[in-house]
User: Fold these one by one.
Assistant:
Number 1:
Amino acid sequence: MMQIPLIAILLLGLTATANAADTSSCYAIAEADARTYCLALAHNDPGRCYAIQDSAMRSRCMAEVRQ
């Protein structure tokens, strides 16, 4: 399970740059949960978080989008 911390680190970098004008960078992410997380933040859409399979990442997504 070494991928989860690595994905979290990558997401922190992406969340800073992912905005509504830069959603195309989200589509370049190969890992489905990470891509959905990025898109949820970029669109500020908590509904997208429910599609994330990893429960910890889904919870993090919901918390960040609802801020």
Number 2:
Amino acid sequence: MTPRKRRPNLRDALLAFAQPELDWKSIVKRYVSALLALIVGTSGVVFAIAPAQAVPQIFSVDCASGGSTQSVTAVTGDTITLTVSAGTCAYVSVEKSIIASSSAVSISGGGSPSAVDRTVYWEWVGTGAITQVDITLSITGAGQINFNSGTPSYTGQTFNVSSGGDSSSNGATSSVPAPVFQQFGRPTSGTCDAVAPESLNWSGVASGGWSESWAQWMNGGTGGAVCTRELVYSTARGGWVVN
């Protein structure tokens, strides 16, 4: 009887094309390595570990008390979430020095207000209560985020944003807060200085220094006359003063 021939298998095929002095395990290893190199080289496949996502900073906003400030340190690419926890906020402004464009700001509530360009800042005036603001930062300098109730008895909160990577020429990080703007509805009688709410004289700030202006947030977003002033931080006095 003629013995049956064994059907060639993969091992035989590899041995036939390999160097005879190599065992079949070494041959398989060579072929697999070559195959993987070919696949990666022709398809351009690249494996990378995804970078860790920045954890957003979350802050509560008080539009009931008025006049409070809070410092925020962040870097470009960070996100911050500001949630209204007290009072009713109907107005938000964000300085352009801390965002790339108005699209970096997402407003929840307030009747979906549109962004208004105010040269050095963007503002949003809601037709209802603004509940939350999410911001992706792009910091080129210190800047402010301002909230207020949008009523003549101005109440709100200011966030002073600075970059942890920004430094002065001597290498020290600046700790001087950005200026703060205060406003309330202009009275029908009397002067701004005479009727200014005492609650706006926070942190030892003197009364007075008010002037008449116009703001979009008045009268439910249709605009109106306001009393306004600017506070700046004096390093010489170690406190806030009227500019």
Number 3:
Amino acid sequence: MDPSRENSISVLDRELLLVDVGVGAETHLAGVTHEGGRSADPQGNNPAPADGRWERTTMCGRTWVMD
């Protein structure tokens, strides 16, 4: 995915993605990973996320979703 289309912020030179964990009531953060990450691009009907640059869990350890 084009990084300019991601819902991300930069804090103290650290790139963070704003994500939903399925409830919709709050926003969580996922960091950039060095290996084995997932994409922020919605996968439509495919339940498995594509490979990408983001951690597969949020900073608090929850699995996140992308609609």
